[in-house]
């Protein structure tokens, strides 16, 4: 996962400052090195190891001549972070520069062959084979565009690539396969980028090239050719994100801003009601639902299982996208596979969708408009959470959940028309409570001072457990994931009922256990688990209703939530204090919550 951008501006404008600004907006995709290449009369390159700010302080990246160029921010896969391995990568002649997001699986074979032919490599990256292949084909007389086409015919892997060459001035060419790429069409200025936030300041008119399309940016406009070399028209989208949505807006970190925006964005997702009703109308005859997702989106899917099985009675499976291929034989045309992904680009989820499409109905629940999963699925529900820049998913998670709640409720209403066994009491209750979720979240956000104090108290612990039953179980899993990814503290989420089957052995003096216990049918049962861990001298943080009768002998700390939040709606509210807890622990430990080590926002490799 890396970020790439390219831009071509009017003759008298300088591309480097624009490229620097654009690539800085993609730093969430990778942050171990950065580089920019422009062409004036010659190829100019500045690149280095480190965060964009550090490299810019040292090299002044915006001070480069030329009205067009390409830039890259890296998340290392092949070759450690270093100046040599930073992109742009160049050919032997120093005339061709390439930026790349993805992985070239057969690069070793290609590199060996090119080396035999006399090409000299300077990095350990898989990417470097690309400028050398382009060079080889241009040396044979092909133009840049044809040379790129020949090059991608040899590559095995995933890629979004942009290339420039001194021999073909005023031109950027780009292509993609299984890695995201958008093209931005501005006023006499044209862009390519891995993601929309990069170019929002310049244009919101975009399109997404399909696999194998070759995009040519020139000062006169953009041309796209398909795999068969025919010029094609692309469907243009207008992004409804504004530039300030991708700014910190006075918050120290994006993650805190995004946690605080959740109440507002849930309302955006709720506007999807009509679209969801339409989709449900077309979904005749389904008798099984499979959620397929990774990470946080997988936790949203688990909540979907509890909800749909309880409201509708259709069997639901939740499958990790990376394990999905083993379930392919059990799909048929009565199965609805729902792919949850904030980025819409996660390679594992996208692959699972492509495998299942010929056999089952497919629905994407996605945040990024026009992304690969949105385009590939038969139906799509957009979560409209706005751009999420913090690597740890927060507001996109709550918006995914909101979409799932709406889907489950509307599906039960539809199916109840012809099925008297479906009892709509829970659905009616749920829909009533959904409207109050933003208010409940605002109340939780108001508790930041006490959560901050709690974070200070627990920040030096090395292992946490998070437990819950039923709807609280996915909350426990997600709370543990948030903690581990941004604080590097080990956190484990467990179904509370599973404690006695193993993890109880780990309960000991001072081990922190977060017990998620909303009011409802599981409350008493979870209370007995709380007592079990307390009896082993664990330190208990109870997340429960603020009128709960838990005394100090049972819980060391209590996060109180409005008692009107029942267990069915709890996933939308109870996760918020756990996001805040993880955030403040990260701050106390001096970790950057927006850019957790080794992780990136959009996982386009598998
Ligand atoms: C955790 C997180 C990841 C993602 C996972 C799937 O905070 O963000 O676990 O949830 O990589 O990503 P999407 O939703 O883009 O498919």
Structural account:
Strands 3-2-4-1-10-9-11-14 form an 8-stranded antiparallel β-sheet, covered by helices on one side. Helix 15 (448-458) packs across helix 18. It has 606 residues and is of the alpha/beta class. The chain has 3 domains: 3-246, Glutamine Phosphoribosylpyrophosphate, subunit 1, domain 1 (4-Layer Sandwich); 254-435, Glucose-6-phosphate isomerase like protein, domain 1 (Rossmann fold, 3-Layer(aba) Sandwich), CATH 3.40.50.10490; 444-588, 3-Layer(aba) Sandwich (Rossmann fold). It contains 18 helices and 24 strands. The chain binds fructose -6-phosphate.
Quick tags:
alpha/beta; Rossmann fold; 8-stranded antiparallel sheet; 6-stranded antiparallel sheet; 18 helices; 24 strands; about 20% strand
In short:
This protein has 606 residues and is α/β, with parallel strands linked by helices. 34% of the residues lie in helices and 22% in strands.
What class do helices, strands and sheet pairing give?
alpha/beta
Q: Terminal Cα separation, in Å?
A: 11 Å
What does the main sheet amount to? Answer: 8 strands, antiparallel
Strand content: 15-25%
Briefly note the CATH topology name of the largest domain. Glutamine Phosphoribosylpyrophosphate, subunit 1, domain 1
Number of domains: 3
| Poorly predicted regions | none
Rough outline: globular
In helices, the fraction of residues equals: 25-40%
What average pLDDT do the residues reach? 93
Bound molecules: fructose -6-phosphate
The CATH first-level class of the largest domain comes to Alpha Beta
Q: If strands are numbered along the chain, what order do they take across the biggest sheet?
A: 3-2-4-1-10-9-11-14
Q: How many separate helices? A: 18
How many E strands?
Answer: 24
Radius of gyration, in Å, reads 25 Å
């Amino acid at each position: 996962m890396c970020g790439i951008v390219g831009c071509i501006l009017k003759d008298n404008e300088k591309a480097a400052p624009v490229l620097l600004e654009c690539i800085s907006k993609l730093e969430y995709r990778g942050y171990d090195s950065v580089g920019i290449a422009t062409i004036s009369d010659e190829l100019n390159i500045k690149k280095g190891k480190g965060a964009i700010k550090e490299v810019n302080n040292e090299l002044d990246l915006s001070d480069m001549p030329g009205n067009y160029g390409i830039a890259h921010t890296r998340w290392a896969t092949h070759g450690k972070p270093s100046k040599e391995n930073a992109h742009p990568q160049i050919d032997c002649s120093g005339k061709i520069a390439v930026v790349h997001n993805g992985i070239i699986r057969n690069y070793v074979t290609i590199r060996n062959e090119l080396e035999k032919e006399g090409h000299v490599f300077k990095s350990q990256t898989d990417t470097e084979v690309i400028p050398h292949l382009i060079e080889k084909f241009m040396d044979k007389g092909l133009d840049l565009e044809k040379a790129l086409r020949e090059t991608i015919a040899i590559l095995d892997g995933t890629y979004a690539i942009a290339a420039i060459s001194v021999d073909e001035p005023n031109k950027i060419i780009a292509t993609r396969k299984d890695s995201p790429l958008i093209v931005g069409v501005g006023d006499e200025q044209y862009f390519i980028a891995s993601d929309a936030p990069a170019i929002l300041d310049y244009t919101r008119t975009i399109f997404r090239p399909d696999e194998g399309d070759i995009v040519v940016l020139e000062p006169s406009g953009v041309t796209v050719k398909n795999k068969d070399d025919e010029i094609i028209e692309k469907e243009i989208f207008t992004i409804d994100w504004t530039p300030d949505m991708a700014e910190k807006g006075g918050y120290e970190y994006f993650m805190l801003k995004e946690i605080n925006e959740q109440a507002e964005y849930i309302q955006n997702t709720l506007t999807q009601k009509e679209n969801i009703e339409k989709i449900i109308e077309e979904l005749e005859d389904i008798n099984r639902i499979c959620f397929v997702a990774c990470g946080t989106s997988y936790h949203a899917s688990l909540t979907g299982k509890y909800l749909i099985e309880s409201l509708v009675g259709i069997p639901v499976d939740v499958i990790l996208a990376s394990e999905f291929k083993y379930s392919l034989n059990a799909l048929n045309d009565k199965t609805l596979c729902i792919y949850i992904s904030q980025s819409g680009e996660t390679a594992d989820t996208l692959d699972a969708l492509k495998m299942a499409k010929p056999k089952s109905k497919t629905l994407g629940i996605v945040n990024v408009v026009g992304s690969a999963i949105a385009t590939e699925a038969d139906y799509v529900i957009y979560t409209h959470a706005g751009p999420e820049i913090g690597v740890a998913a927060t507001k996109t998670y709550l918006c995914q959940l909101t979409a799932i709640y709406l889907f489950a409720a509307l599906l039960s209403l539809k199916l109840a028309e012809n099925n008297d066994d479906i009892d709509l009491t829970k659905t009616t209750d749920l829909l009533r409570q959904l409207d109050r979720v933003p208010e409940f979240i605002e109340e939780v956000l108001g508790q930041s001072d006490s959560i901050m104090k709690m974070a200070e108290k627990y920040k030096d612990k090395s292992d946490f457990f998070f437990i819950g039953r039923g709807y609280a179980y996915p909350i426990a899993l997600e709370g543990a994931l948030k903690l581990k990814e941004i604080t590097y503290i080990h956190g484990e989420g467990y179904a509370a009922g599973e404690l006695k089957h193993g993890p109880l052995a780990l309960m000991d003096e001072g081990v922190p256990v977060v017990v998620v216990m909303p009011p409802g049918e599981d409350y008493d049962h979870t209370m007995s688990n709380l007592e079990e861990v307390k009896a082993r001298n664990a330190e208990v943080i109870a997340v429960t209703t603020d009128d709960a009768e838990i005394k100090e002998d049972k819980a060391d700390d209590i996060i109180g939530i409005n008692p009107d939040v029942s267990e069915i709606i709890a996933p939308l509210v109870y996760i918020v204090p756990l996001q805040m807890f993880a955030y403040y622990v990260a701050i106390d430990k001096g970790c950057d919550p927006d850019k957790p080590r080794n992780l990136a926002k959009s996982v386009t490799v598998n």
